[in-house]
Amino acid sequence: MRYHNIVGQLAKEYTAFFLLAFCFIFFLLSGLYFLCYAEGVEDDPFKSKNFQKFNFVTAGDFGCGDEPNRTIKGMIKKSPELTIALGDLSYDKSAFCWINSITLLETDGTVKIALGDHDLTKKMIKYNDYLRHFSMTKPFYSFNYQNVHFLAMTTAKNSVIPYQNGSEQYNFVEEDLMKAHNNKSIDWIIVYSFRPFYSSVTSHSGQRELPDTYHRLFDEYGVDIVLQAHSHNYQRTFPLRYNETSYLPLFHPEIVNKENTLYKNPNGTIFLTVGTGGAELHNFTGKAPYIAEQFESHGFLNVDIASSKKELTLLGTFYENTDMNKKDHFSITKQK
């Protein structure tokens, strides 16, 4: 009897010991999990509740048909708050084949457009249809969305809508960028246009008067990215500043950061060609030294923006129409 009492007492003590040990290990592992995982989530601006977030999608050179429809369906999957279309929207005589295609993305003015060559025809029929449908009073305009300032330029045909120094558009751009730069509630400035400022050699390469006229303004007023089209391919530059010392600054912009994908306080503008909406693709005949990434593919660029009291993050991801494959990505982080 006494033997059984001793065994029972030992069993109770060992059971209590193992329970205490189990609880200790459980709470230890839970603490390590919190430190290693939960803090990691907190540091991720796109998962943390401390960051304000939104996204937009963009592409140009659409046309009407199966491939542009695939691009638009891919955009819809990202549930964007804004859609930026970069010109050459319809290659038909009518603008409405493209307007009808984009309807599912259009809610309370969430689709914004730039105008391309094929949107400025001789009789300006499509041009006027676009202005009426998108409630535009002018082909160049700007707006704020959360902490981002967006500026739309029209660079398709200087003879139709002038953009060179001294034009109404130039004066608008200069004043608009100055106001945005001085606005304390604005953390990002994004310009979108049609003709490329900088480009590798392809069907529609960069146009000298554009960087000569505007890149100094982008440097002065802190433009973060420029979205452009016209070339039916994808290109992403390193962060660039205007090269004041070069005889041909179009071919020799100043590269301020040669990191391939991660840019912290880059102090330069990234130029993105996204002429990938659906029109027949353009081949490259080389790669410019200031280009970080380039390829021929249909798809769109998704841009996620996250902001906290201290840190700002912009994440760009290019999705191919084929299986929504992630073909390129980059990020910019800045201190607020």
**Terminal residue distance:** 76 Å
Proportion of residues in helical segments: 25-40%
Main sheet: strand order: 3-2-1-14-15-16-11
Q: Name the CATH architecture of the largest domain.
A: 4-Layer Sandwich
- Specify the overall morphology: globular
Describe this structure in words.
29% of the residues lie in helices and 25% in strands. It has a seven-stranded mixed β-sheet. A seven-stranded mixed β-sheet has the order 4-5-6-7-12-8-13, covered by helices on one side. A two-stranded antiparallel sheet has the order 9-10. The protein contains six helices and 16 strands. The model is unreliable at 26-41 (pLDDT under 50). The chain folds into two domains: 1-43; 52-335, Purple Acid Phosphatase, chain A, domain 2, CATH 3.60.21. The chain has 336 residues and is an alpha/beta fold.
List the helices and strands and how they pair.
Blueprint: H1 2-43, E1 52-59, H2 66-77, E2 82-85, H3 96-101, E3 111-113, H4 125-133, E4 141-145, E5 148-152, H5 168-182, E6 188-192, H6 209-221, E7 225-228, E8 234-237, E9 240-241, E10 254-255, E11 262-264, E12 270-274, E13 291-295, E14 299-307, E15 311-320, E16 326-335
Parallel strand pairs: 1-2, 2-3, 5-6, 6-7, 7-12, 11-16
Antiparallel strand pairs: 1-14, 4-5, 8-12, 8-13, 9-10, 14-15, 15-16
